[in-house]
């Protein structure tokens, strides 16, 4: 008899002390992008959990939009991923640099 055992998901190491699993990723049906959701998608691509093309397809992102999230996260952390921050970063690339 077969039991309902969930499939094992791939887990990616995103930093020395943190791992990210497929069940940690935001739903592709998310109505609103928070800075944490954006960061999880970027971390999933960097950690090898998703390839860029699949992430863009799954979340209906352009490569440019994903790259802007990537730059914002690298330069300013989570605060840089807030909607207004990403727009400022696109207009003024040196705005958030420390």
Q: How far do the termini sit from each other?
A: 60 Å
What is the count of DSSP helices, taking H or I runs of 4+ residues?
4
Uncertain ranges: 5-9
Q: At CATH's second level, what is the architecture of the domain at 33-98? A: Orthogonal Bundle
Structure description:
By secondary structure, the chain is mainly alpha-helical. It has a domain at 33-98: Winged helix-like DNA-binding domain superfamily/Winged helix DNA-binding domain (Arc Repressor Mutant, subunit A, Orthogonal Bundle), CATH 1.10.10.10. It is built from four helices and two strands, in the order ββαααα. A hairpin with a 2-residue loop joins strand 1 and strand 2. Helix 3 (63-76) packs across helix 4. It is globular, with a radius of gyration of 15 Å. Mean pLDDT is 79; it is low at 5-9.
Key descriptive features of the protein:
mainly alpha, 4 helices, 98 residues, single chain, two-stranded antiparallel sheet, globular, Arc Repressor Mutant, subunit A, 2 strands, 44% helix
Task: Please describe the topology of this protein.
Blueprint (H helix, E strand, L loop, with lengths): L10 E5 L2 E4 L13 H12 L5 H8 L3 H14 L6 H9 L7
Helix pairs in contact: 3-4
